[in-house]
Automatic annotation (TrEMBL):
Transmembrane segments: none annotated. It comes from Staphylococcus pettenkoferi. One of its GO terms (molecular function) is methyltransferase activity. This is Class I SAM-dependent methyltransferase. It is an enzyme of class 2 (transferase). It comes from the Bacteria. Coiled coil: none annotated. Keywords: Methyltransferase, Transferase.
Length: 278
């Protein structure tokens, strides 16, 4: 297996969580492809097997983002999806979206690993660059399936917490400027600042050999809105505690306590373009 260090190693956590959840008769998601990939990798996944909270959290976020992606595709006339920090994500296959123009972007060592299990097609392009390398947007805009009428959805799942607040702000700024003609929508996952300050307590990230750390998070939505450019606005925010409460065991009650539910679990934030004044 390609040796992964630092942030790229974290892609193995959602792969394992989706695989373990698929084994459950009443699992939140079913993802046999993730099981197949996991079984072929030479890595000690046992270090993740005992973390039920991570498994539930990733399963809920996977399910929720799946629903949001489906909704986008139903509403968009010419959808084009960009998956930032794709890792070994299987959403395109799981949702049977092989005919939708789809870009998978990640750092070179991850794309090299991804190519062992997935093949590029005319409507599925791999881009081996950091999300902070602005040239990836030019790669998208010179790709054959792209057009000026494309309606773009950007998915940023399990990524932003590994970057500084200034880098996250930079990312939102240049993306909103480059794609401002495309009815841009974004689905992003964020952790809380409380969690970002305590990566060493995370039940699975703390077990990674490379010990990556969280940097960016927010406790209150207004703190997140502050880093967005004026052209973007938050259309909805979803705490993972709000879904499948029975799977959260005793923590399920936190969905009724806003102060805690937004600090002790991740959020999925949906972002859209602000209508321009004429």
């Amino acid at each position: 297996m390609t040796q992964l260090q630092g942030i790229p190693e974290s892609l193995l956590i959602p792969l394992a969580a989706r695989s373990y959840e698929t084994e459950s008769p009443r699992g939140i998601i079913k993802d046999p492809l993730s099981q197949k990939i996991m079984a072929s990798l030479d890595y000690d996944f046992n270090k993740f097997s005992g973390s039920w909270m991570t498994q539930v959290g990733i399963s809920v976020r996977t399910w929720l983002i799946d629903q949001l992606v489906r909704r986008f595709i139903q509403q968009a006339r010419r959808p084009l999806i960009i998956n930032i920090g794709c890792g070994l994500d299987t959403r395109r296959q799981r949702l049977n979206l092989e005919d939708i123009p789809w870009v998978d972007l990640d750092v070179p060592e991850v794309i090299l690993l991804r190519k062992q299990f997935f093949t590029e097609t005319e409507v599925n392009r791999f881009i081996a660059k950091s999300m902070l390398d602005e040239t990836w947007m030019d790669d998208v805009m010179t790709w054959a399936p792209y057009s000026e009428k494309s309606e773009i959805l950007i998915i940023v799942e399990g990524v932003l917490m590994y970057f500084e607040s200034s880098e996250v702000q930079q990312f939102f700024n240049f993306v909103s400027q480059k794609f401002n003609q495309h009815q841009l929508q974004m689905i992003v996952e964020c952790c809380s600042q409380l969690m970002a300050d305590h990566t060493h307590y995370h039940p699975t990230v703390s077990r990674l050999d490379s010990k990556p750390t969280f940097k960016f998070g927010y406790n209150r939505l207004p703190d997140f809105v502050k880093i967005l450019p004026q052209t973007l606005l938050v259309t909805s925010e979803h705490s993972l505690f709000d879904y499948y409460s029975h799977r959260w065991k005793g923590l399920g009650v936190l969905r009724w306590i806003p102060y805690l539910k937004y600090r002790l679990n991740n959020k999925i934030v949906v972002i859209g373009q602000r209508e321009r004044e004429i």
